[in-house]
């Protein structure tokens, strides 16, 4: 739950983490996630308004994630947002979650404006997006199977690292070396990604090494580093290709996986001298409400709010 001023300034940004709820199951349990939304959201509304020092009726617009996402969570969020919009007589803007991730970059750099090229990497998406203007998005590349974050989560599970996998694997990879146990770098023609083969390659490697229990303690960080390297190099090779096809002066790397240490470093190296790179700080990379508020705010600019009570992208 967040309050953002002028689409660019974060006044409050609260995240209720459900990691502890889902960790025992090794992944998100949709029903538990929806119930947690129902229990937590009303209190978070009060808290966010209090921290920002505003009243609900002061708001210009109420933004809410309209999808993609878990349907139960979306229903709870949209139901609450519709109720608040009605109670406070404010317009409602439904926001695409992925476009929200791109807006995290506009919160990071106040002078950043489209056109730009974005790599959106999350638990469910690995998309290359050309943003032509506010509300004008064109997906030019995507994954044909697993998303990058999903690949990290599954690899972490294969390596017995638990949930959530991406951050744990990132930490473990920092102590490893990608060279002793190299894994293939997925490479499809065009701008398509594929990570399911890499996931299988890791599984076979662990099996060939005698299974997880037999792994030398030094090998686990090396496997993490090798897996991370393959995902990151694959992500960036297509970003490079997209940038050659559509030269852009502004490039954004965003979404939960943009919190990855190696991706942040290698993206900066790739774009050095070619384009200006914006990667949001870690708390704006992983899911948060400020990015949705920023997108909602930009979605109503220049529109007649009285004539269109329900807006958004
Ligand atoms: O955008 P996000 O917070 O939620 C979705 O919209 O899916 O992305 C979550 C994904 C998870 O798969 C998580 O493992 C991954 O982002 N992730 C990371 C890191 N932090 C989060 N992956 C690699 N390295 C990280 N440091
Ligand atoms: Zn996300």
The percentage of residues in β strands lies in: 15-25%
Order of helices and strands: EEHHEHEHEEEHHHHEHEHHE
Oligomer: single chain
In DSSP terms, counting alpha (H) and pi (I) runs of 4 or more, how many helices? 11
Q: Uncertain spans, ≥5 residues at pLDDT below 50?
A: none
Number of strands: 10
Radius of gyration: 20 Å
Biggest sheet, open or closed, and with what strands and sense? 5 strands, mixed
**How would you state the average pLDDT, rounded?**
96
User: Could you tell me how far the N terminus lies from the C terminus, measured between alpha carbons in angstroms?
Assistant: 19 Å
Attached small molecules: 5'-O-[(R)-(carboxyoxy)(hydroxy)phosphoryl]adenosine, zinc ion
Question: How are the strands of the largest sheet arranged?
Answer: 7-6-5-8-9
Question: What percent of the residues sit in helical stretches (DSSP H or I)?
Answer: 40-55%
Q: Characteristics of this structure?
A:
313 residues, alpha/beta, three-stranded parallel β-sheet, 11 helices, binds 5'-O-[(R)-(carboxyoxy)(hydroxy)phosphoryl]adenosine, binds zinc ion
Tell me what the structure shows.
The protein is α/β, with parallel strands linked by helices and 313 residues long. The chain contains eleven helices and ten strands. Strands 7-6-5-8-9 form a five-stranded mixed sheet, sandwiched between helices. The chain is globular and about 65 Å long. 42% of the residues are buried. 5'-O-[(R)-(carboxyoxy)(hydroxy)phosphoryl]adenosine (KG4) binds next to helix 5 and helix 6.
């Amino acid at each position: 739950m967040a309050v953002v001023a002028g689409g660019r300034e974060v006044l409050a940004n609260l995240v209720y983490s459900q990691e502890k709820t889902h960790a025992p199951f090794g992944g998100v349990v949709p029903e538990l996630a929806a119930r947690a939304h129902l229990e937590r959201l009303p209190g978070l509304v009060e808290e966010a308004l209090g921290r920002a020092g505003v009243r609900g009726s002061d708001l210009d617009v109420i933004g809410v994630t309209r999808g993609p996402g878990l349907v139960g969570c979306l229903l709870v969020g949209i139901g609450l947002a519709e109720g608040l919009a009605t109670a406070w007589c404010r317009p409602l803007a439904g926001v695409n979650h992925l476009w929200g991730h791109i807006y995290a970059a506009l919160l990071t750099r106040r002078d950043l404006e489209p056109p730009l090229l974005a790599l959106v990497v999350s638990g469910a998406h690995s998309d290359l997006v050309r943003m032509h203007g506010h509300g004008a998005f064109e997906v030019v590349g995507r994954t044909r199977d697993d998303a990058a974050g999903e690949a990290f989560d599954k690899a972490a599970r294969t390596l017995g690292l638990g949930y959530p996998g991406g951050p744990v694997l990132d930490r473990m990879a920092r102590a490893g070396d990608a060279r002793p146990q190299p894994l293939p770098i997925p490479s499809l023609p065009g701008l398509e990604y594929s990570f399911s083969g890499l996931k299988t390659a890791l599984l076979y490697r662990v099996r060939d090494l005698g299974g997880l229990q037999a792994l030398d303690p030094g090998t686990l960080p090396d496997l993490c580093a090798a897996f991370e390297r393959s995902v990151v190099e694959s992500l960036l090779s297509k970003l490079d290709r997209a940038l050659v096809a559509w030269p852009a002066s502004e490039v954004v790397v965003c979404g939960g996986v943009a919190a990855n240490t190696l991706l942040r470093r290698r993206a900066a190296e790739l774009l050095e001298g070619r384009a200006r790179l914006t990667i949001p700080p870690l708390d704006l990379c992983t899911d948060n409400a400020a990015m949705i508020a920023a997108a909602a705010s930009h979605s109503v600019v220049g529109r007649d709010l009285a004539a269109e009570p329900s807006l958004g992208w």
